[in-house]
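Sample entry (97 residues):
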Amino acid sequence: MPENYWGIPPDVAWTGDADRVVVLRLSGDGETPQAMEGPAAAIWRVIARGPVTVGEIADRLAEEYEAEPDSLRADVSSFVAQLAQRYFVAPTERIAG
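Predicted structure, serialized as tokens:
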């Protein structure tokens, strides 16, 4: 079964730098900003570049942190699932470019 591509929905705003990202869902009532640092911010920055799979995120983080992609995949998958539960990311299609 092919992996989902994950992207940021249009109702999610974010700002940040290399070390920290703050994300807010604009369409929800009573939403609170979510601050992310370290590997969480790194995952967000990869997703922000365009729709990606969990495997692609793990590959990019492996390069950044000099780790094996397979050792990161479960943690990346779990974190992406948490982001999806808060509607910060959603399955999407990759647009050929």
